[in-house]
Amino acid sequence: MRRRVKLFVVWILIALWPTATKALFRGQAILNRAVPGVGATVGLPPAELLLSFNHDVAPALSGVGVADSNGRSVPAGQPEPVAGRAYELRVRLGRALKPGVYTVDWSVVSRGAPSSGVYRFTVAP
């Protein structure tokens, strides 16, 4: 009986292996670092955002939106490549941020695979 259970588990793992490895190796970008940082509280309002990923990203196929705690959009420029760092994007903010919580919503394409995510940071009073 135990042998059958073990054999069943092995067959399930073999069947699921292609699905699991496809997600790992298809090249989706993961946000490694951000300035301001994920969940960070900053004393001075940032003039720009810097997003750093684990793979090179295509700036022309990328988008970054910023919203305040009321959900109002904050003016932001288009994502720009950082010279010599194809895995980083810079987004200039159109105005000084007031104290509060801000949400950054990003989407990029890396190695032909789209990725997206959301993070927050706070500007202290």
Could you explain the architecture of this structure?
The chain is an alpha+beta fold. It has one domain (28-123): Sandwich (Immunoglobulin-like), CATH 2.60.40.1220. It contains one helix and nine strands, in the order αβββββββββ. The strands form two sheets. A five-stranded mixed sheet has the order 2-9-8-4-5, with no helix packed on it. It has a four-stranded antiparallel sheet with strand order 1-3-7-6, with no helix packed on it. A hairpin with a 5-residue loop joins β4 (63-67) and β5 (73-74). The chain is extended, with a radius of gyration of 20 Å. The mean pLDDT is 89.
Write the layout of secondary structure elements.
Blueprint: H1 2-25, E1 31-35, E2 41-42, E3 48-53, E4 63-67, E5 73-74, E6 80-82, E7 85-92, E8 100-110, E9 113-123
Parallel strand pairs: 2-9
Antiparallel strand pairs: 1-3, 3-7, 4-5, 4-8, 6-7, 8-9
Arithmetic mean of pLDDT: 89
Please tell me how large the radius of gyration is. Answer: 20 Å
- Listing every helix as H and every strand as E from the N terminus to the C terminus, the arrangement reads HEEEEEEEEE
CATH topology descriptor = Immunoglobulin-like
Sheet with the most strands: spatial strand order = 2-9-8-4-5
